[in-house]
Amino acid sequence: xxxxxxxxxxxxxxxxxxxxxxxxxxxxxxxxxxxxxxxxxxxxxxxxxxxxxxxxxxxxxxxxxxxxxxxxxxxxxxxxxxxxxxxxxxxxxxxxxxxxxxxxxxxxxxxxxxxxxxxxxxxxxxxxxxxxxxxxxxxxxxxxxxxxxxxxxxxxxxxxxxxxxxxxxxxxxxxxxxxxxxxxxxxxxxxxxxxxxxxxxxxxxxxxxxxxxxxxxxxxxxxxxxxxxxxxxxxxxxxxxxxxxxxxxxxxxxxxxxxxxxxxxxxxxxxxxxxxxxxxxxxxxxxxxxxxxxxxxxxxxxxxxxxxxxxxxxxxxxxxxxxxxxxxxxxxxxxxxxxxxxxxxxxxxxxxxxxxxxxxxxxxxxxxxxxxxxxxxxxxxxxxxxxxxxxxxxxxxxxxxxxxxxxxxxxxxxxxxxxxxxxxxxxxxxxxxxxxxxxxxxxxxxxxxxxxxxxxxxxxxxxxxxxxxxxxxxxxxxxxxxxxxxxxxxxxxxxxxxxxxxxxxxxxxxxxxxxxxxxxxxxxxxxxxx
Amino acid sequence: xxxxxxxxxxxxxxxxxxxxxxxxxxxxxxxxxxxxxxxxxxxxxxxxxxxxxxxxxxxxxxxxxxxxxxxxxxxxxxxxxxxxxxxxxxxxxxxxxxxxxxxxxxxxxxxxxxxxxxxxxxxxxxxxxxxxxxxxxxxxxxxxxxxxxxxxxxxxxxxxxxxxxxxxxxxxxxxxxxxxxxxxxxxxxxxxxxxxxxxxxxxxxxxxxxxxxxxxxxxxxxxxxxxxxxxxxxxxxxxxxxxxxxxxxxxxxxxxxxxxxxxxxxxxxxxxxxxxxxxxxxxxxxxxxxxxxxxxxxxxxxxxxxxxxxxxxxxxxxxxxxxxxxxxxxxxxxxxxxxxxxxxxxxxxxxxxxxxxxxxxxxxxxxxxxxxxxxxxxxxxxxxxxxxxxxxxxxxxxxxxxxxxxxxxxxxxxxxxxxxxxxxxxxxxxxxxxxxxxxxxxxxxxxxxxxxxxxxxxxxxxxxxxxxxxxxxxxxxxxxxxxxxxxxxxxxxxxxxxxxxxxxxxxxxxxxxxxxxxxxxxxxxxxxxx
Lengths: 530, 530
Known about the structure:
The structure is a homodimer.
Chain A: E1 14-17, H1 25-38, H2 41-47, E2 55-57, E3 62-64, H3 66-76, E4 83-93, E5 96-104, E6 110-120, E7 123-133, E8 144-152, E9 164-168, H4 183-187, H5 197-204, E10 208-213, H6 247-254, E11 260-265, H7 271-277, E12 280-283, E13 303-308, H8 311-321, E14 333-336, H9 337-340, H10 345-357, E15 361-363, H11 369-394, H12 404-411, H13 415-435, E16 440-444, H14 457-477, E17 481-489, E18 492-499, H15 505-517
Parallel strand pairs in A: 1-4, 2-7, 9-10, 9-11, 14-15, 14-16
Antiparallel strand pairs in A: 2-3, 4-5, 5-6, 6-7, 8-10, 11-13, 12-13, 12-17, 16-18, 17-18
């Protein structure tokens, strides 16, 4: 056996080959490793065959074609140092070989890099790569702030026996400091000596808390990006934003780390991540569930909610946590064309098809949407500043470039502006409830599929403003709103939102489940055949 | 593109191939998937080429040769159901192809399975496989009971700034219930309202607590096996026991999940996992560090200790947590032949070589080892029953088949037997300290390398009794004992134990570090060339 000198580290490694090594193979491998160590993107690109069929997978996501692999590398900015412990080489022919490197990180994690190499025109290049590693962290800190086995045991038994919950970092959990997505805020809190009411309701019914998952800062965003903690991966679309502000609970559920996500929804913070991650998500009727022990954003609109992979789990949570008897969500579906039309063209096309299949009727109540939207945003901003303004003013520099300007704008809202906005909101609430009496409204949950992670801030802000025009209506009216994962827009999930009468929360989930079960709809969990 | 029918699940999948499919390739793949779904071990074996060079890696560990792959499969007992989302096929020739399956678990995790297939004598078989998956749990629950980002922040700054700690589940951590490796015990505890003294000392010096890691039940074992929580993987030898009872902190450090492990050592519970996992581990002088807020096992011998990947981190912890000035650990090394000789032959051979290289002199103090060993075990058992007997008696069936018989035997020890054992222990303590004055004792940390995970209980018990005869001496004398990762026994790590004068803890680590830095020794972190 041959010793090949240290390429990426000083650790010696053992070479395990089953046949004489073809000329140039190990030299090509060593060039690749050197390029990796120095992040020489051009050399790394050159190591892959220039084909649309070159493959690079990381265990959960596949890049196909050398261009996709190159773009990924260019954005990645290098890999952490690692040592090769053992190199297994299987020579298949003079022109084909498999090289598998077993890796060890100086931080203690381990990994495996499998390459299939082919020689063409005298040059060895990679046909396909599979790279995987064990984490050198106890938990995914873009997703979780704390987790346990469980973090909090059940306090009773009931309909949620065996269900594990990811709790948004806005709720008190006994023994922990609430953070609201802001480390400096967390640092000043004391350990909660009791659970938030919404947490207690779940553990009383048999659920256990798996952990505390991230929120956008003070829940004042819909993107799922947190400038301090990072961005949870969207398992349904790893190169897209996960949606927020209940980003952590949503991603925890989508990844299977928990069965149920407990979050809040002020202007869409349950419905948007549900839409972007292919989940079922319910925003409850305003005032139906206690917010005791929960960090507020805008109390006139704040409501708790849940996220799940299926309607049944969502139903169990709603039944356990909400009053037993409530009004029924009618099976008569309606849509408001001027609302649905606010979605982007591809979302509207997919939505119209499903709305047709579900037999939704169009109504035209003539809502003054722009006036209402302005009043909603004014009152939300005023209340957000009332809730957090003094802390933010005393702690400059603690908010990200996305959320900070929102609070700055909120600081400028006057009490008089808030008062007149409140009057508009109250009138709108009554008008919407009356217009929708006897029917269940459907609309797209979000204006677009999830935007790319590397989109510029202006594009993310514009996308948020676009989606808010759809989501704010249920918030304004204080109505329960369910996002169901029914649309597939160019391979990306988008939800259909069902809005029912006040207090119809449980029935709303039942109605949507029953209607969509018997109706053929696009479902992002079923891949299409190409 | 072709649709091939569901093999392991009802989810349709997309086939992505770059060339016409060679005859029989997909049929062979489908047979493999069917065999996986039904755990048809014979069919799975037949799918791999019958060669010593067939490879199957899981991202951290490589199986080499079809026999090794078969043994693994036979022990595994099937895989959880999963759906194939996309199948990427690269045809390299009529006889060679790569098939990569992107997987999704119904629980939400994702995975990738890369196979290189070759046709020989008309049959397609797998040459090499790389299988990886994302976890569907927030954290590795064989290792951690809770973890955070961090779970507990620093309470000051100092020599441990930036150091992350895995705390054994015997120490109080503010806001959490201590479990001592026994779920039913944890369920009856209240949330700790302050940290154990040993935890507080670390966070005061700038460390953060990454999480709470598993202990063997009531710390009364050296194997690292916990019948309730499972067994943490030993990263240095994945098919071997990790060693205990500080198994979780050791594995957390070895995997890079934390920089420092905080544990306890009554009869070897720091030194044994350090030895088995290639770590540095220090058992402190008895009484040198407070045990306030720590679940006891046998107070006459209980001592705290730390585990680290390097001597410097261990030193920082010892300096932060122990009194500043202590006696020096002499650079004059001695070994006691009748003690070293208790190790197995291969360990003794490796140890003798290192002892020679380090210039250790033999001494023959004529200790009555068997009498002392009996007294040690009697007093340990008596105190363990005093500490936990009433709880165990009131909670039948809560202990595993390994630990339960130890407590049963402990219950039979009489007060009179304990009294006479205590007299022997006190005399022995004085005699050992006198005999070792002016020198630092070295001995093998454990009698054997880590035993196989699938060993029968009798073999594990015999191995423990074997190792206890080496480890008990420092416990009996209340002396600081450091295990340094210096031996490589057939590719497996074993430690060399340095025993210094009472109170010499910091100096002991410095002495061992300095002596081994300048002396060529076997180091398990450097692979040999074969």
